[in-house]
Write a structure and sequence with these properties.
The complex is a heterodimer of chains A (529) and B (340). With 529 residues, chain A is mainly α. Helices cover 74% and strands 0% of the residues of chain A. Chain A contains 21 helices and no strands. The chains are: A mainly alpha (529), B alpha/beta (340).
Chain lengths: 529, 340
């Protein structure tokens, strides 16, 4: 069930109605039921996979909690008789045992994701090698890939690690945990929530609150505006530019980068706006996933502002543990002794960064384009890091220039274009083709076509361009105006203005939005990940 | 507080009115292009009952002319057909019509029996958007929707036609509140001539079995007519072009059905010569459909059958009725003679 389908609008409205009609203690049950119905309606057979993940997570967390409690109880009971060193050793032994349990849970949880998402990719790799050595080609089995599997798997596994780290206590009620895993607004494209942030809110009764409802609904409408006015209108052109890449080269690659940036921004942030808005209407506050990413002045800043929950997940659960892991410490010591402190200290951090970005790429999809996308991001971040002393010297030498608004704008545009360029790997889905097309921006000099009929040759009419450009301008304006306090919070306090805005946005989306027959019922891009 | 509530209600109502206006503006008017789309809705402007109701696809609204049937036989008739009107469309249209009037004969053209599944969204819209809301329309929508369609887009056609905002023309404003009548009691006149030059037959099919779904609807149509005491007559128009070929194997199944259910079935394809159809002058699109000259010949021929076999009386003596039909004939001949 797509967010942009009429059935979803009806479904969400009914859920909302039911949520506020039933007694507070029943509200979480309404959410659970709705979530399961939503997922079942999204695809036949999907339910079994999410139930599996929830069950594995529940049982593993239960065992982890049981062991942790037993450990604490034992230490408490024997505090008087045990030396500190003994207690430490005991805890270390117990931690090791719990770590094994955690590994088993992670293996079972990530295992399903790996099998369903990466089997074809791995077999394809094996086939390529096999045929390169003269072997006969063979077919690749196609496996069902449940919607949003990466999101709910990562969210569940994050919870397991938090239980292992004793940051949260394991949920004792399976149904409640199932709700955490399957909460329908965020099921398909995140944000990837943390148990500590979300669970209590899902279970706690919420009273009807006019301001939250108004702010939430406005955000939902804003999400639809971004998705249906900008993202889906641009989609038709992007499909043509990609499928006919042998024709559309040079300046069209630049257009693709710009259009795809607009599309993915509208699509992903729009989807998240709908998710967070719906939750806000019910009094549930989800973690923000974006913070005006296209105003970032560096790649590092961009990744702190774009898909924030995924970035922090990888930082907390991959980068950080990897950096402080024992093998990495050994590697650090070895590299320091052999290569000196400057290089030696950097190498482990770089290794952890590369591994993290490799996995980030892989998380986005089973394809070399995603891996290269991740590694290129990593390269830009590491190079920027190495160039930092140079930037500092430059800033010191030209303080007025680097503090000026035009310099800031230049940095933002540079980051936007660089990220857009790397992101185009996601469009063409073929690494060598993407590199060739990047080259064509320098070798195929066809900018003059923009002034003939080039702009309307790939599926966008003049009116479509007008819709996209006006949509982008509105988004830019609203985003800038909401730098400190989101516009919707100010509007929600003024009911008449709020009502007028909701009505205007509804009319604009209904008339100018890209939906219905004639448009491909496009899924939100991130539901594929 | 009260003020705020009233202001909000006013804003919502205003938006509703605006969206209603936008919907009326954006819906296709079918006045200059694809005029078939306007046919179904015109029925509601018609008053009184008819002796004969025709239902079916283009082969009825291009092959029979109610003004000729009146002029030559004094039989009143109406055609409820639209482009690629499938059998479930026809059934629900008939159901709707039989709630409004009781004809003596219902004529159904069987070409659409070859389609056992919903075919085209655009043709669905042409048929269904023209229907007034009723249980029949609701059922017709559910029976007709292709995979990409939503019921709600029939309730709120703005959801379907919103993308026309960039194509709005003078016609959309001109016919915003009222439309011209494009048909003559459901007959869409074509005066052009394009000779039929090919006798190419249809390509061989793997399976000639007509869908059971179609026979189910034919059964429903038959039962409905029986309940209302109306004679159901099956026909196949005389056109038989390559693209819309009527196979003997299909014909045999219809003959068999008609015989089993004691229905009359007239296949006019082999009778074309007897009717007097001249394929060099009586078709406007090389034999796919009849033009007005061919349609008049077929109507004349079928009029005799209707009068003789089904005992339909000549009602030209009814003054009030004559006045109405004289007006219709005038409009008919005006268009036929190129004065309109």
């Amino acid at each position: 069930m797509l967010f942009t389908s009429f059935s979803f609008v009806l479904f969400a409205a009914l859920t909302m109605l039911l949520y506020f009609i039933v007694p507070g203690r029943m509200q979480w049950k309404v959410l659970l039921l709705s979530s399961l119905v939503f997922y079942a309606l999204s695809g036949e057979g999907y339910l079994i996979f999410i139930l599996y993940t929830a069950l594995v997570t529940f049982l593993t967390a239960h065992v982890l909690q049981h062991r942790a409690d037993a450990e604490d109880a034992f230490v408490e009971k024997n505090r008087a008789t045990m030396e500190k060193a003994e207690r430490k050793a005991y805890r270390a032994r117990e931690k090791k045992k719990r770590f094994r349990v955690l590994c088993a849970g992670l293996f079972l949880g990530f295992g399903m994701l790996a099998v369903l998402k990466y089997t074809a990719f791995v077999i394809d790799g094996v086939r390529s090698v096999w045929t390169a050595f003269g072997g006969e080609s063979f077919s690749i089995p196609s496996l069902l890939l449940p919607l949003g599997i990466s999101f709910y798997t990562f969210q569940s596994m994050g919870y397991l690690i938090d239980v292992y780290r004793k940051k949260v206590r394991a949920e004792r009620n399976f149904a409640r945990l199932l709700l955490f895993v399957s909460y329908f607004p965020q099921l398909l494209q995140g944000p990837i929530s943390r148990f500590g942030d979300l669970q209590e809110q899902l279970i706690t009764p919420h009273r009807f609150d006019g301001v939250s409802l108004r702010a939430g609904l406005l955000r939902v409408m804003w999400g639809y505006f971004k998705k249906m006015i900008v993202a889906d209108t641009a989609m038709v052109a992007i499909k043509t530019l990609v499928s006919e890449s042998d024709v559309y080269q040079g300046v069209y690659v630049v257009l693709l980068i710009l259009l795809y940036s607009a599309q993915i921004y509208g699509d992903f942030t729009g989807g998240i706006d709908i998710t967070i808005g719906l939750s806000e209407m019910m009094g549930i506050k989800l973690t923000e996933n974006f913070n005006r990413p296209f105003s970032s002045k560096s790649t590092k800043e961009y990744w702190n502002r774009w898909h924030i929950t995924m970035g922090s997940w990888f930082t907390d659960y991959i980068f950080y543990p990897l950096s402080v892991s024992r093998p990495m410490q050994k590697f650090s010591m070895a590299s320091c002794s052999k290569l000196g402190n400057i290089v030696g200290m950097r190498l482990p951090v770089y290794a952890a960064t590369v591994a993290t970005w490799f996995l980030t790429g892989l998380w986005h999809g089973a394809g070399w384009n995603f891996i290269v996308w991740g590694l290129l991001n990593c390269l830009v971040i590491l190079v920027s890091r190495e160039l930092e002393p140079l930037y500092r010297r430059f800033n010191k030498r030209f303080p007025r220039l680097t503090a000026s608004a035009p310099w800031g704008a230049w940095q933002a545009i540079r980051t936007f274009l660089l990220m857009g360029l790397i992101r185009s790997l996601d469009c063409y889905r073929d690494v060598s083709l993407t590199f060739r097309l990047w080259g064509s921006m320098l070798t195929t000099w066809n900018w003059s076509e923009l002034f003939s009929d080039g702009l309307t040759s790939f599926g966008l009419s003049q009116s479509d361009w007008a819709v996209i450009l006006i949509g982008v301008a509105v988004i830019f304006f609203v985003s800038s105006a909401g730098k400190d306090t989101p516009v919707r919070h100010r509007v929600a306090k003024r009911p008449i203005l709020w009502c007028a805005l909701v009505c205007i946005m509804t009319a604009v989306v209904l008339i100018f939005g890209a939906y219905g027959i004639g448009y491909d019922a496009s899924q939100f891009i991130y539901t594929q990940f | 507080m009260k003020k705020r509530i009233f202001a909000c209600i006013a804003i919502v109502l205003l938006t509703g009115v605006f969206l209603g206006f936008a919907q009326a503006l954006l819906m296709p008017k079918y006045m200059s292009a694809s005029r078939e789309g306007a046919l179904i809705g015109e029925y509601y402007n018609e008053s009184g009952s008819h002796d004969v109701l025709f239902v079916g696809d283009c082969e009825v609204y291009e092959s029979f002319t109610p003004p000729t049937l009146w002029e030559k036989y004094g039989i009143t008739s109406y055609i409820r057909g639209s482009a690629q009107q499938l059998i479930w469309h026809s059934y629900y249209l008939l159901e709707e019509m039989l709630k409004r009037e009781t004809p003596k004969v219902v004529v159904y053209n069987v070409l659409a029996m070859k389609y056992g599944k919903p075919q085209s969204e655009a043709y669905n819209r042409m048929t269904l958007d023209g229907m007034q809301w009723s249980v029949s329309k609701t059922r017709a929508i559910y029976a007709s929707m292709t995979e990409d369609e939503d019921f709600i887009s029939y309730v709120l056609p703005l959801l379907r036609f919103h993308s026309r905002w960039s194509e709005i023309s003078g016609e959309d404003f001109q016919y915003l509140f009222s439309r011209d009548t494009v048909s003559h009691n459901g007959y869409l006149m074509q005066t052009g001539i394009k000779e039929k030059t090919s006798d190419r037959v249809g390509t061989e099919l793997g399976d000639y079995t007509l869908s059971s779904v179609c026979f189910d609807y034919l059964d429903k149509m038959r039962t409905l007519c029986e309940e209302k005491g109306v004679e159901l007559v099956l026909i196949k128009a005389p056109t038989n072009s390559w693209g819309y070929y009527w196979y003997d194997e299909w014909d045999a199944q219809i003959i068999d059905y008609a015989a089993k259910n004691e229905l009359d079935y007239y296949n006019f394809i082999p009778l074309a010569e007897e009717i007097g159809i001249d394929w060099s002058t009586d078709t406007y699109d090389a034999g796919v459909h009849l033009n007005v000259y061919g349609a008049e010949k077929l109507t004349d021929y079928f009029g005799t059958i209707l009068a003789e076999t089904y005992g339909l009386e000549d009602r030209r003596g009814d003054e009030a009725l004559s006045d109405v039909w004289e007006g219709k004939l005038k409009t008919y001949y005006k268009e036929r003679n190129g004065e309109k």
